[in-house]
Amino acid sequence: xxxxxxxxxxxxxxxxxxxxxxxxxxxxxxxxxxxxxxxxxxxxxxxxxxxxxxxxxxxxxxxxxxxxxxxxxxxxxxxxxxxxxxxxxxxxxxxxxxxxxxxxxxxxxxxxxxxxxxxxxxxxxxxxxxxxxxxxxxxxxxxxxxxxxxxxxxxxxxxxxxxxxxxxxxxxxxxxxxxxxxxxxxxxxxxxxxxxxxxxxxxxxxxxxxxxxxxxxxxxxxxxxxxxxxxxxxxxxxxxxxxxxxxxxxxxxxxxxxxxxxxxxxxxxxxxxxxxxxxxxx
Length: 282
Known about the structure:
single chain; 282 residues; alpha+beta; Thiol Ester Dehydrase, Chain A; 16% helix; globular
C-alpha cells in the first residue's frame, strides 16, 4: 500500500440525482417485497435510512493504480452511519469523502483504511447523513498507524436477546444489491471469489447490514425513519446468498445493541452492533 497516496486520495465531489427507482432497487436488494410494499412501490414511498450507505457510493476507488492495494482481497471490516434527517423519495445530493486514517494489524495481518462520506442536500448543503467505512485490506499489513482511529464498540450484553428476527437471503441478492453502486466482482464473479478464497461469490457486507437496519427500523424505531438516528457494527464473517440471517436485539432506552448470525452455520456475521434512536445518535 502506498500510504501517502491513500491518505491523500482526491475523491472530488460526487453530485447525484437519485430517483424513486434507485430507492426501490436498494430495498429490493435487501430482499424486501410484497410484505414491505411501502419501500418498493412508488405510492407513498418510504426511503430506508440505510440508503445513506449506497447514496453517492465512491465506487472502487481503492483499486486505483498507484495506491498499490490488493483489491481482490479487500473486505469490509466496520461501518458507522448517522442520519440527520430522512431522505426524500427522490432528490439531488452531493457526496464528499476523505480518508480519515489507517490502522495497522501488523505484517501479514492486514490494515484497515477508514473513509468518511458526508451526504449533503444539494439545495441547501445541509448534511443528511454521515457514513464511516472501515475497509480491511488483507494483504497490506505493516503500514503503521496513521490519522484517526474510531472508538472500538463495546461487547454485547451477556444475556439472552430481547428479540430475534430471521430473514432469508435470496440467491440473487448480491446480483441485485450491486446495482446500487458496489460493483466489486467478488460478489458476482466465481473466478474472482475463488482468488479471494471463497467457493462462491459472497454477499456484500453492507447488504447484510442493510437487512439488519430494516429490522432495527421496524422493531425499535416503530417503522419511522425520523426516529432512526444511526447504527454501526463489525463485519466478522462472510454471508452467502441463500442463507438465513437472524438479527438478535438487546433493547435499551436510547435504542438497542444487536448482532447478526448466519443461522444455518451458527456463525456470527455482524458483531458488536449499536443502534441509536434519533436524538441519541452521536
